[in-house]
Specification:
mainly beta, six-stranded mixed β-sheet, about 120 residues
Length: about 120
């Protein structure tokens, strides 16, 4: 006899940022973090079922990017700078100065996509 369990639950993602020089909270809007230089972001994921959960993020509505830490160290958070960091001829984390919307979400092993959430990062 075989049994099937349907996983219809959505996974979740949370973020942790390096210390901002200013945090702006406005009712009904995502939080805004102001940085005077580069900043880091770590994503963590959770689900109600066992299995791999992948975190993703995107900047300013661009394509979703799988979060795996920093390209040279999976234990390190992702680094954002105004010009980016070149590793093996690819540039990572370049967002330019100004105000940016960063969305994040999780996808579980069953393919369920968590609700995207967002925050604003301003790089001065």
């Amino acid at each position: 006899m075989r049994e099937w369990t349907i996983d219809a639950g959505r996974p979740a993602a949370a973020y942790e940022l390096s210390k901002a020089s200013e945090v702006r909270r406005r009712p009904g809007r995502p939080p805004e973090y102001v940085f005077d230089g580069s900043f880091t972001m770590r994503l963590t994921t959770s689900d109600d079922r066992p299995g791999t959960v992948v975190g993703e993020f995107r900047v300013d509505g661009d394509g979703w990017y799988n979060y795996f830490g920093w390209p040279t160290d999976s234990a390190a958070p992702f680094l954002f700078t105004d010009k980016g960091t070149v590793i093996d001829h690819l540039s990572y984390g370049g967002i330019g100065k100004g105000r940016h919307t960063i969305e994040y979400r999780a996808i579980d092993a069953a393919g369920n996509v968590g609700e995207p959430r967002k925050f604003i990062a301003t790089l001065r």
